[in-house]
Amino acid sequence: MDSKSRIPVWLLCLLALTAVMFAGVVYAGVAMYQDGVVDVTVREKRPGGNNIHIIVPGVLVPAALHLVPKEELKQQLRGDSREIEEWLPVARIAARELARIPDGPLVEVDDHHDHVRIFKRGGVLVVDVDDNQDTVHISVPIALVRSVADNLQVSVGPA
Amino acid sequence: MKRVLIGALALVPIWAIAATVARAEEHTRWIHVRVVSKEAEGETVRVNVPVEFAEQVLPAIHSHELQDGKVKIHGNVEGVDFKQLYEAIRNTPDNEFVTVQQKDQNIRIAKENGFLTIRVHQTKDSEDVDIKVPMPVVSALLSSGSDELDIVAGLKALKSYGDTELVTVRDKDQTVHIWLDSKNTSE
Questions:
Q1: Co-location of A83 and A21 in the same domain
Q2: pTM, full prediction
Q3: Are residue A152 and residue A87 in the same domain, yes or no?
């Protein structure tokens, strides 16, 4: 074979690296799309109050859970946070069913000062709280709630 | 002509998906609870829950009186066979079964058009309670033990009903309204 027609090794490496990076970006995009993002916004109403806006890719939450030592998590859930363990099966079923129900308001509480809304929009559970002091907005992908509940259940063992 | 035909054929799956989604939403039955306080700065609480959601989640809750989707009946129920009582009512024509008229309260329990209705009016606290439950739902609620109500069975039976007023309580402090329909909002 004519050596002049060969593709240089450095170009092959560059192509391979580009392909890996592209695959990584695509995978990250797909993971972000599937798990969505957790969006938390807190605005203090007092003059000079804080505005906090946190966006966390949903894919990071189960990953972070995997970093917590399993024994420690198990002890915590069976010890001080026993109530969480008791309600985990309910949370898992609720998350599964939430994914199936149509969009709409689930809970609304209004009084003279406070307004609370919990509703489902698309695959996201949204909590909005507006009171005298703060405005809080939290949106969590329902698939993520389910995934976290499943992970915690696996950590503590069968219900 | 061919283009129109291909265009029309292309629209069929879109229409099928839209129709399926619309039918699924239409068939979802929602239980609505609305509590409105009568105090000057009182609160209003609205809860909207699909029947299927409650049906799936309730059996998983094990808390106090609610176990496996069933609630224990409290009070002096010893010696009262609710199932037998229900059977007796079910097999009789529409009628008023209990009418109590006292100085400070009136109670009326009746079977009307396939519904068990309970009305309580207390003059002292100006409280009115209206409960209207389809007879098959009463049967499902009593399908478990004699001292408990099977809420999940009741919900399953309730799903086949159209818009239904279930409970209305009015007193001097608040109004509580529980009803069933196919809308996902309580307005």
A1: no
A2: 0.75
A3: yes
* Cα dihedral across residues B137, B45, B163, B19: positive or negative: negative
Instruction: Provide the number of structural domains found in chain A.
Output: 2
Per-residue model confidence (pLDDT) at position B74: 73
A86 and A8 together in one domain: no
Q: Tell me whether 0.90 is exceeded by the ipTM.
A: no
By Cβ distance, the residue of B25, B42, B45 closest to A102 is B25
* Minimal CA separation from A95 to chain B, in Å: 10
Per-residue pLDDT at A158 exceeds 70: no
Are residue A45 and residue A96 in the same domain, yes or no? yes
A83 close to B (CB below 8 A): no
Q: Report the pLDDT value the prediction gives residue A1, as an integer from 0 to 100.
A: 47
Would the pLDDT of B20 be above 50?
no
Residues 6+ apart with CB under 8 A from B86: B138, B139, B142
With contacts defined as CB-CB under 8 Å, which chain B residues touch A101?
A: 28, 50, 52-53
Q: Are residues A4 and A40 in the same domain?
A: no
3-state secondary structure of A104: strand
Cβ contact (<8 Å) for B185 and A105? Answer: yes
Domain region containing A104: 36-156
Q: HSE-up of B72 (CA within 13 Å, CB side)?
A: 10
